[in-house]
């Protein structure tokens, strides 16, 4: 049995957790990402990191300026899984759109792989809450659509589409149309479409928010498997605190009006994670306390 000695001090006004000893029957050496066990990781900052520096985003409403994001500073290192949580209107999705390059009207800088983000790029894939599949296209055609703006030869694109279909567990559904598959399967198609271009950074905007609870749990496990398999740097925006704890290496807690980073919570848990463990529930409860929901399931 291995014991993880974890000191948690989130430096907030509420009484911090005491030092806890977590005993587990799943030693670190059994987990693919054993280097992630603990608050600090072995990963180091380099030119591949995503740097968000002093980002401010505002909208002009008639004669009023509405500030949506203010003073966002964040560094995401290669291979990290970052979860972002916050109430509606805190600017989580807006921040994701800025990182994706879908919106370039902001102050500050977003630097990825040493370059300033000035627009969309194939190195950054994004998945939205709605799967956004074309109903008149089959599963494989919807995924292959990702190659429409590339010069990848058709033979190679077809091979990669089939490989990605296999990866997300949709083998046998290549010729199916969106109305012939479930919502969870449709979202897998959307994830496959984002992954087929082999991005280095995957952005997820509430990808499971519209799904039922059981399907959501299954796809959370599937996403964790894909993350481990592909080694992607991943940023997940979610309202689901348990989802954030289950998947993230760190959790960015945002506050609203305007959107700011309130604090960043490390998740010092080995994978696969036990949702019923004391430390898992402690981290979940602590994050939920930022939204006056401590103890609420």
Describe this structure in words.
The protein is α/β, with parallel strands linked by helices and 297 residues long. Mean pLDDT is 82; it is low at 1-44. It has seven helices and twelve strands. A six-stranded mixed sheet has the order 8-9-10-5-11-12, sandwiched between helices. Helix 3 crosses helix 4 (183-195). The longest helix is centred in the C-terminal third of the chain and has 18 residues, at 213-230. The chain has helices at residues 92-100, 139-144, 154-167, 183-195, 213-230, 241-247, 278-288; strands at 2-6, 20-24, 50-61, 64-76, 81-85, 107-112, 115-116, 124-127, 201-205, 233-238, 250-255, 260-266.
Q: Which descriptors would you attach to this protein?
A:
6-stranded mixed sheet, 7 helices, disordered N terminus, alpha/beta, 12 strands, globular, 297 residues, 26% helix
Per-chain topology:
Elements: E1 2-6, E2 20-24, E3 50-61, E4 64-76, E5 81-85, H1 92-100, E6 107-112, E7 115-116, E8 124-127, H2 139-144, H3 154-167, H4 183-195, E9 201-205, H5 213-230, E10 233-238, H6 241-247, E11 250-255, E12 260-266, H7 278-288
Parallel strand pairs: 5-10, 5-11, 8-9, 9-10
Antiparallel strand pairs: 1-2, 3-4, 3-6, 6-7, 11-12
Largest sheet: 6 strands, mixed
- Assembly state of the chains shown: single chain
Note the total helix count.
7
Major β-sheet strand ordering:
8-9-10-5-11-12
How confident overall, as mean pLDDT?
82
Number of strands: 12
Structural class: alpha/beta
Low-confidence stretches: 1-44
């Amino acid at each position: 049995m291995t014991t993880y000695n974890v000191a948690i001090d989130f430096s907030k006004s509420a009484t911090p957790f005491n030092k806890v000893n977590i005993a587990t029957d799943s030693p670190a050496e059994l987990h693919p990402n054993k280097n992630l066990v603990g608050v600090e990781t072995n990963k180091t900052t380099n030119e591949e990191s995503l740097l968000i520096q002093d980002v401010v985003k505002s909208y002009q409403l008639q004669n009023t300026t509405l500030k949506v994001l203010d003073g966002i500073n964040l560094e995401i290192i290669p291979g990290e899984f970052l979860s972002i949580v916050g109430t509606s209107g805190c600017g989580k999705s807006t921040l994701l759109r800025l990182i994706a390059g879908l919106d370039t009207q902001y102050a500050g800088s977003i630097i990825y792989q040493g370059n300033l983000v000035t627009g969309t790029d194939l190195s950054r894939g994004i998945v939205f809450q709605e799967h956004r599949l074309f109903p008149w296209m089959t599963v494989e055609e919807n995924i292959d659509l990702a190659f429409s703006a590339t010069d990848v030869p058709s033979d190679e694109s077809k091979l990669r589409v089939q490989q990605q279909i296999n990866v997300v567990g949709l083998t046998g559904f290549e010729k199916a149309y969106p109305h012939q598959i479930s919502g969870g399967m449709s979202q897998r198609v959307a994830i496959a479409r984002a992954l087929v271009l082999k991005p280095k950074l995957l952005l997820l905007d509430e990808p499971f928010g519209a799904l039922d609870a059981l399907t959501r749990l299954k796809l959370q496990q599937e996403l964790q498997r894909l993350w481990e398999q592909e080694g992607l740097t991943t940023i997940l925006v979610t309202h689901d605190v348990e989802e954030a704890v289950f998947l993230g290496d760190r959790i960015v807690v945002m506050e609203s009006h305007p959107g700011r980073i309130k604090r960043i919570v490390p998740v010092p848990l080995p994978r696969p994670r036990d949702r019923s463990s004391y430390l898992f529930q402690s981290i979940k409860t602590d994050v939920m306390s930022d939204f006056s929901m401590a103890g609420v399931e």
